[in-house]
Design a protein that fits this description.
Blueprint lengths: L1 H23 L6 H22 L6 H28 L7 E2 L2 E2 L5 H26 L4 H29 L30
Helix pairs in contact: 2-3, 3-5, 4-5
Length: about 190
């Protein structure tokens, strides 16, 4: 009888320890927050795709396609983070031997200020483009709009990667030059083929 009580108490203690460990591993960011961010990116992606479908080719189409891919990449990163939360998988990235950490509120606010500046430039560029009905000048103005919208998509990617401690596809440290390596063996023109 006494052994049975000890076994039951040991099982209860182990169960409570497991529950406590499960609760302590709860992420600081909720899936509701990620879902809200995913919905915003999905709406912007749908808009970008509909704009891209208006063009057959050219520079504007290329810029819009790049914007669509940046938004898809951001959405995919958010999907991975959401799935890791739902499946209780620790999604942690290590860059240069250091674990990626969520950005501070000050850093996130700086990124949001940068995004607000770009959105003002987008609004101004759209107003400027709408002054023209067609032709080369309108095309150039629309390229400016597309370029600014691409910048906004990349800044949103930067924001979400900082917020959720996800790695950027290319990480460049400010003031640091990338290593310059030759593309391969240098040969004369005659040896190139």
């Amino acid at each position: 009888m006494q052994k049975t009580i000890i076994v039951i108490l040991a099982i209860l203690v182990a169960g409570l320890t497991a529950v406590l460990g499960f609760v302590l591993q709860e992420p600081a960011i909720t899936t509701v927050e990620i879902d809200r961010d995913r919905a915003a990116i999905s709406a912007e992606l749908a808009t970008a795709q509909s704009e891209s479908e208006k063009y057959q080719g050219g520079a504007i189409k290329a810029l819009l396609s790049t914007r669509v891919e940046a938004l898809r990449h951001t959405l995919t990163m958010l999907d991975q983070k959401r799935e890791s939360f739902l499946r209780r998988i620790s999604l942690v990235y290590t860059i240069d031997g250091h674990q990626a950490q969520p950005a501070s509120d000050a850093t996130l606010n700086d990124i949001l200020e940068e995004l607000a500046g770009v959105e003002k430039r987008i609004a101004s560029a759209k107003i400027d483009a709408d002054r023209y009905s067609g032709g080369l000048v309108r095309s150039l103005k629309l390229m400016t709009v597309a370029t600014e919208e691409l910048s906004a998509a990349q800044i949103r990617m930067k924001f979400f990667t900082a917020k959720y401690s996800l790695p950027l596809p290319i990480i460049a440290k400010s003031g640091e030059k990338p290593p310059t390596l030759p593309p391969g063996k240098v040969v004369s023109d005659g040896e190139a083929l």
